Amino acid sequence: MIERPDAMQRVRLAHTEALLAQLRSAGPLSRAELIRLTGLSRTTLFDIIGDLIARGVVVEREPALSGHRGRGRPSTTVSLNPSAGRIVGIDLGRATITVIVATLGHDILARGSRAVALTAGPARRANAAIKLIDDLVQEHDIDLRALEAIGLGLPGLVAGRGRSAGGSGPSVAAKQVSTRIRDRYGVAVVTDNNSRLAALAEGTWGATRDVRDAIYVRWSDGVGGGLIVDGRLARGANGAAGEIGHVSVEPDGDPCPCGGRGCLELLIRPSALIEQCARRGVTVADPADLVARARAGDPPVVDVMRHAGLLLGRVLSGMVVQLDPGKVAIGGTVAHAGDVVLDPVRAAIGQLAIPRHPRRLDVVTAQFGDEGGALGAVAAALRLNVPEPLPALPTA
């Protein structure tokens, strides 16, 4: 049977879209990697790439020879043309806005942060984010006419793919912020929880990029997290996947704003740890001072921090049993204390997560700091039209 030309064109278009989706989500790839990830034949893939290069959609990059120690010459890579499109990532945290402007080729053009009042409402917060974007665009002479999508990270329960979780409160505010930003720039806005987006950043470019399953913890003014399952970000049926800080540790403990009692976040967030130090007679100025004293070996502070790491490890041990991740990455302000908090996390997981089961599990410090949420917002926007589950991420 001879296919009609329009059917053949549809197949060709589907193959082209599959190839472009890989480049959007993973960044520069060699032709061999593209063949493996798309399943296309060498002839078909080379033909499509040649056409895309001629149209200026993709470009070839010469290999970087500096530091190359492998055999032979490294392969050239194919990437989306950096001038063909722009992506904006926003982490609109409780007290700080972080914005990153990037290209479709995964190159960062501009980055910046700005404080925002804790009491600011949705409209004011949205306007502050817009002002920061516009200032970066002007400062770095960026043309946003090629803007394709915006990723937006917000604290609280926020469903992915531009949908807010049902109900009132934070979800309503999230919708108001995303709508204001979408109306200003006229492109799709992908909205998600900022800690979950930080997990996506680590899985795309950071500490967990070499594994398919990972747990990420953001230990900062609050305690959030995210799960990478089979290479993709888990959001859950109601947009609450990865809310590690709201696992109850003390069911009869203090009430939490989430409606639960004795949540992990209430016990190990920096403000709680500073209060615990005060009860031991040690005055700690702020979270940075808390971390500095822990790293310096101040005994009461070290005891407080180790106990906090133990509590976190107990919660993570249950998640490790269920997910069986290849890595656990811990980021945020408190993670800067290093092994003071990571060692008790490792010990708790080793003791509680099926200790007789032979597993290799690395508990590491996350690669990205305060920019993690904004980078993850960029990654989410890049994956806007990528079918899930995502393909295996290339290794460096």
Description of the molecule:
The protein is α/β, with parallel strands linked by helices. The protein is 41% helix and 18% strand. It has twelve helices and 13 strands. The protein has a five-stranded mixed beta sheet with strand order 6-5-4-7-8, sandwiched between helices. A five-stranded mixed beta sheet has the order 11-10-9-12-13, with helices on both faces. Helix 6 crosses helix 12 and helix 10 packs across helix 11. The two termini are 44 Å apart. The N terminus and C terminus are likely disordered.
Order of helices and strands: HEHHEEEEEHEHEHEEEHHHHEHEH
Number of helical runs?
12
Helix coverage percent: 40-55%
Question: Which structural class is indicated by helix and strand composition?
Answer: alpha/beta
Beta strands, count: 13
Amino- and carboxy-terminal Cα gap: 44 Å
Evaluate the radius of gyration.
23 Å
Which outline best applies?
A: globular
Q: Could you report the average pLDDT, rounded to the nearest whole number? A: 87
**Major sheet details:** 5 strands, mixed
Strand order of the largest sheet: 6-5-4-7-8
| Percent strand | 15-25%
